[in-house]
## 1
Amino acid sequence: MTAAARTGDARETILGRVREALRLPAPPPHLKSHALEPAPIGGLPVLPLEAARPWLPDGGDSPEESRRILGENLARLKAELHQVADAAAAAAFLADLARRRDWKRVAIHGHPLVAAATATLACDTYQVDAASFDKDTLEACDAGLTTCEVLVAQTGSVLVSSATCGGRALSVLPHVHVVVAMIDQVVPTLGDALHAVRERHAGRLPSMLSFITGPSRTGDIERILVLGAHGPKELIVLLVG
Amino acid sequence: MTPPPTGSATHPGTDTATPRLAKKKFLQHAAEHVRDTGHRAFVRKALGGYYTTRDAQKARYRDYEQARDAASLAKWSAVNRLDELLPRFAENFTANGGQVHWARDAAEAREIVLGLLRAARAKAVIKSKCMTSEEIHLNQAMEADGYGVVESDLGEFIQQLRGEPPYHFVFPCMHVRRDEISDLFQKHLGSAATSEPEELTMIARRHMRRLYVEADVGITGANFLVAETGQISITENEGNARLTAGLPRVHIAIAGIEKVVERLDDLAVLLPLLATAGTGQPLTCYNTLYSGPRREGECDGPEEMHVVLLDNRRTAILADPEQRDSLHCIRCGACLNVCPIFKNVGGFTYGTTYQGPIGSVITPHLRGLADWNHLSGASSLCGACTDACPVRIDIHHHLLHNRRNAARTAPGFFERLGHRLFVAAASRPWLFAAGGRTFRAALGLLKVVRPPLLKAWLATRDLPPAPKQSFRSQWRRR
């Protein structure tokens, strides 16, 4: 039997078992909020996200509040947050950072904001694109500089995508990840972030979307927190505007 | 370095043990672990920080209890429409350029993965944490076929070097002390001795970097399968899954069929709850959605992406409406962290892939109630697991359901005899009174004689003093 035929068989068998199993209905879920939401539960007309919005952690009702919450969350996550007035100030900040850290080479991608912010870097830059991509070169870089799709106040996350942030590895392979973003890229909640990314990439989502929430970490040894397990040890967010 | 084969057949945590022996082994290992107060203290201390951070994060929800409702609802509506959502996921993922494979059981899943490795002419395989791969014993099968495979998650890597399966399905090596890890790394990686968790982590980091770059196949699990967009979602903290799914030429993800959710938006509820319940974080460090291989115009990413959808008796749980909600499990591990049994007997005693309360519920379904019903008794029925579950699975009642089902299908001889005798006595007052007199007299005798049948019970308990009169006669006097 060919592999394709076998996989077809398996598909039919599994879906057959699923249909058979679901002939008996399950009781409704054990919810605490019956009294508050009497009608929607059984019939499922309420989307869980819509229902959950007022229950999940706060993302702020105004841009200022969202930025404040974002700042608090990033601090808790041990990520750095800096704010500068414009692209020139961002470039000066990064040039200074690269000098202080003695970075030899940083990886960047072709986004205009990243290009402007890295214009005055004294160290080498490695521009990552489809033609130049090389794992070894990227691995040897001291830092990766990317922009992001949006920043999420509610969780302190940075949403990067393979389409607009220099692919998959740039934001995770180098030892330091610097994110440059405009101040209006801050959104209140995860739901808003997913909504924004769907609007932007209407109908064709990037092959990878990643919510980055603080620098890479592990607690595998005696449940003690260590930063920089496999991904970046440091996450530096630079807000412009 | 060649890692030793994972999970030797004699290890307590390996679930290839002869099923008939499962109960005997459970009792034996439980007794050993309960006596080991050092181990218990160590596990409790390791979990101490979890309670603090979890409670702090729960407090940041405006209403955590209702957020659990939303998560529960998202999973309930997906699991009860698997017939519609599974094909929809497969269709959308295929349209994104990925390939879907269906595996009825563990053997078929292993064959599929080995077939993909052969087709890819794989030389080096890197893996990120994937409990379904533990369930199907993938590493052993890959090693038997000559493929070197390295676990990249720090905890899993440590367990791989130790030749042990995970102790806890979220914190795989929470039972291992830092000095043991230092010794292990000295032996296998030639590193210097250290007692700093940070330094130990950096040793693993340095060791793993080349392996990511050189691997040609990356194997991961999946926490959610999004039907409407054909994406898989992977939750992790270390960045190892990002590297495993991003750098190699081929990405294979293995997922149970119950991982499907309908909408991308559902993740805006499920991801925070998974992190909060699992580790006390607002969100784990990396939550990544993959919709297929690298797109035209993207810089990097795999050329091929495969998802293996595993049944392996999940449909048997689905067929039981009463316990169908145990498929809502998002494997956060919260029920293990709060379970008094887990904290006392430890993760290996269960002898299962999925430990703790949820493991005790689903293992009898996955591997047979007759041999695994003893897990239903591994509970104080305190309900801490049910309280902790972010998707509101009625865990401790399911343990009772399993006990009832076991009693229905194959009641034990002594249990049946006991119930018969009780029914006979309870319906005849004179016999009941006579029985009471006999037992009161026997109680004094038992303290001296200690029959072997009661040895286990009496080893850790004293018999109460025998009352002079029965309850009924005391009642009449009042």
## 2
Amino acid sequence: MILDKKIQYKSKILVADDSKLQRILLEKIFSQAGYKIFVAEDGDEALQLFKKERPDLVVLDILMPKMNGIEAATKIKKISGAEYVPIIFITGDSREEYLQYCIDAEGDDFIYKPINELVLKAKVNSLLRFRQLCQKQYSQKQQLLEYQHKMDQEHEIAATLYKNIVHAGFYDTPEVKYRLSPMALFNGDIFLVAKSPGNQLYVLLGDFTGHGLAASVGAGPAAEIFYGMTEKGFGCSEIIVEINRKMHKLLPVNMFLAATVVVFFPDTNSMSLITCGLPDHYLFNHKTKQLQTIISKNLPLGIIDSFVPDMQHMPISKDSFLYLFTDGVIEAENTQGEQFDAPSVINSIDGDIDGYTAVLSALDKHTKGMGQQDDITFVELNCNVSDAQWMQVATKATHKKLQALSWKGSMEFQSSSLRHANPVPVVINLIMEIQGLIEHRESIFLIVTELFANALEHGLLELDSKMKQSADGFMQYYSTREERLAQLSDGYIKMSFNHQPTKTGGKLVIRMQDSGPGFDFSKVSSDLKQNEQNFGRGISLLFNLCKTVEYSGNGNRVKAVYEWTA
Amino acid sequence: MTVEVLLNKSNNELQVKVIGRFDFSLHQDFRKLSEQAAKGISSISIDLGRTEYVDSSALGMLLVLRDKVGSQQSAIKIINASPEVKKILTIANFDKLFTVM
């Protein structure tokens, strides 16, 4: 590397020597070489000049009055601090202990009397070049520190924003235990809990792909949709569809949100889950020691623009706990680089102490000595819904007391409109407008969705639900559904609603009729008792929610009765 | 961690082999790959036979490729994935977007 000439001419050198002759000689050498030079007669003066002029390099005679060269050098190095200022000692004595003093005083080089001009210039040149490198590195380091400081500040702001948005509607209850590490935000984990007007508990655990701030930009909108729609009584599939739509619009192609929504229904001791790309969940009954693995059934959110979520509905026991976590838990490494895998989680859950404590302490033990591995979100949901604290506290009524009205209406959807849109949400909104059954929105939505799906898929499109039992068949089912729906040229679905007040509240009779060939409904109830699987979760859900479900005609007409109490 | 890319000129298929960990460190390789894919490639086969691990940013890179080549499920084939890697793809339900063989 060639020393920048400009720097050479600008470089300032401080020379201190008590011999006048020596001073004249050094001044001549450095001036001719183009340096700016300052001259001192002793160590004390050298120190004062150093403070005033801040030279780039210092040449000190060792033996001087008032303050010797060694002492002056020590003080100069102290003043310079992190900045590198090279010091060359001039000595007439080449004994080793003398040289040791120079090294102890952090001297950078020596030159012996009588001074050889060429050697001196070479040493000065090389030390100044080194100083130049050090300064460059020093300023880069300062710059990096500044960036880091700025980033820390931004993280802090983001963390505050995140807290405000995500936790604004957070419903805290002892039945929901969670560990969400403070840095999890920057890994894009979100955890949301809310209660619906119908006194159901809604939980969303999500994990954005990627790291850093970019990963958490979607958190705000997702939380807003979740809390907003839960408060209005929307069902989990509607919420998921909406979050998916928003994420698809918002996120770049390579980013998505893996998430699961769980809803607890205390009325029926059951739960619904929509799983979209998170690791397996575990439902563990600590009495029977039965462990049920709940797998991800849907694509993560934000990848495709619209989809029909595959929802899982299952009964829950008061002795069960549901465990959800993001992949940070099973990918947490120990000092050997081994991951805390899924079997470790299962082993901890299936132990003597409670699963939540067991998993987390096993995880802490596993990651001990690994410093901060801050990407862990672990959740335990207590399935004992009937005794849950969140159940006892009624949701604040934000609407008027219900008064059952007497009304009825019917609608008919032709194949052309069925091809384009799902009419169920619109119909539900209409019922809500008329009757204001917001606490019952989720249930009514599920009933109408199931009846409509049956009428469309099995009635008009003549799909066999047995197809859905294998993973391959499942995909085939939905692709066939899409194909046939696109080609649907005739047929209709009629729905009618009849609502009447009862002594205790109201009764909603939902009738649905399709133009399809129907099916042998006499087998429904008997088969349902023997094997729910044959008819899928849909029909068992219907029987759960409704007072009665009756098929008639050739199986293409169904009447469902839903009752509510004020 | 390396990516080997081969263009099969007879059927205009890009053959990609990922060796080692498939994660964010392959970001630049995949960026180049998706630029290439945008220029008239009909299909891509991604061989994960020697891939040890797939993380979520790798899944993101696959989505970018899908975006460039077209969203038909047949456009991108993922072959030879080990059971562990397949498990990650299955959790994300990527078999709905790609042909996983």
